[in-house]
Amino acid sequence: MMNIEHTEQHQSKWQIPFFTVWTGQAFSLFGSNLVQFALVWWLTKTTGSATVLATATLAGILPGIFVGPFAGALVDRWSRRMVMIVADGIIALVTVGLAYLFAAGAVRIWHVYVIMFIRAAAGGFHWPAMQASTSLMVPEKHLSRVAGLNQTLNGAMNIMSPPLGALLLGLLPLQGVLAIDVGTAALAIAALSLVHIPQPQRRPTPAMPAGSRPSLWEDVREGLRYVWCWPGLFAILVMATVLNFLVNPGFSLMPLLVTKHFGGGAMHLAWLESGWGIGVVLGGLILSVWGGFRRRVLTSLTALVAMGTGILAVGLAPSSALWLALGALFFAGLMNPIVNGPLLATVQAAVAPEMQGRVLTVMQSAAMAMSPLGMAIAGPVADLLGVRVWFVIGGAACMLMGIGAFFVPAIVYLEDNYVEPAVSTSTPMGT
């Protein structure tokens, strides 16, 4: 009876604590996006160097790839609420230091690299802590809708942050923009301080009896084994990794598509990027209201095929049909949250709560690792075969993988094939 009462209370009273945290994090995300825009613009204006910008990009990506799996293991050990508070605090602290350097006129390029690296590393702890907390605060039936809201928020920030950042840089010195981020981080910390976030209990496995404490490396390996042991989840990981490798290069070369193929300029590029961004916002809103099919994976696979159709259409659009590329990008953007949101909700609903930090970061790190590799070969391939080839390859890959996945029971019935953490100890991986 007590369990039933607890469940009913959780179902009816989750909104206030969750959206208190969510609102604080939304403000923090806004501040972070402003800082990202401001620092990239400062590097561009100060150096005009593509190498500098590429290095800054790596400083923001590498922590997620290499720190991620260890961050996930620590998130599963520590209080997730405190992880988020400390991560927000570190981001605010290093931003204060950078603001001081700008105010004193003492900033150097390497200072910006270091700060971007530290901010990304702290974010590598914050993201899994927030996502793993969501499944403990939100009833399972609402996870897809919350994922849709998150996709909408990210899309809206991507649209709003550049013009607002440019406006603020015209009104304030750069240290003033950095101060805004410190303020939004403080709001996020205040919101977290008001809310209790449940902490899952770790269950002992046959290889690790109750009362003993595994090493950090053993925790990381357990996360890897957990994914490896779950065929459907491992297949999703492989799909995400391959698609990141094949799809991201096209979007990184969008300026060349506009200038070399469509013969357009900055305004045309802005139209295409805005079309994608508006599509993402609307797609997230649709998901937040609809929630998707009962079987979340089918929602994602259907949207993946549709998104691939849009990306493929961009690559096949003739040079005189910029409007077709614009419509196709809008449609692909509309489908993007409906691909990603239900997949994240599936992991949150199906993976054991005490394993979610590790599982989420393993999947994120593997997918992120392919992006730099894809972008490294994107230029030479585009020079040889043209920019459009990346959109054709990426779109076709989305369609073929999405259609093929419908015939893989391990993927279609992913949510039914729950894996207990103890099962992971029986695999030979790394043992």
The percent range for strand residues is under 5%
CATH topology description of the largest domain: Growth Hormone, Chain: A
Number of helices: 17
Which CATH top level class of the largest domain fits?
A: Mainly Alpha
Amino-to-carboxy terminus distance:
43 Å
Round the Cα radius of gyration to an integer and report it.
22 Å
CATH homologous superfamily identity of the largest domain: MFS general substrate transporter like domains
Order of helices and strands: HHHHHHHHHHHHHHHHH
Topology of helices and strands:
Elements: H1 2-12, H2 15-47, H3 50-66, H4 68-77, H5 80-104, H6 109-137, H7 143-171, H8 174-193, H9 216-229, H10 231-252, H11 254-261, H12 266-290, H13 296-316, H14 322-350, H15 356-385, H16 388-405, H17 409-412
Helix pairs in contact: 2-3, 2-6, 2-7, 2-8, 3-6, 3-15, 4-6, 4-9, 4-15, 5-6, 5-8, 6-15, 7-12, 7-14, 10-15, 10-16, 12-14, 13-14, 13-16
Name its key features.
431 residues, mainly alpha, Growth Hormone, Chain: A, 80% helix, disordered C terminus
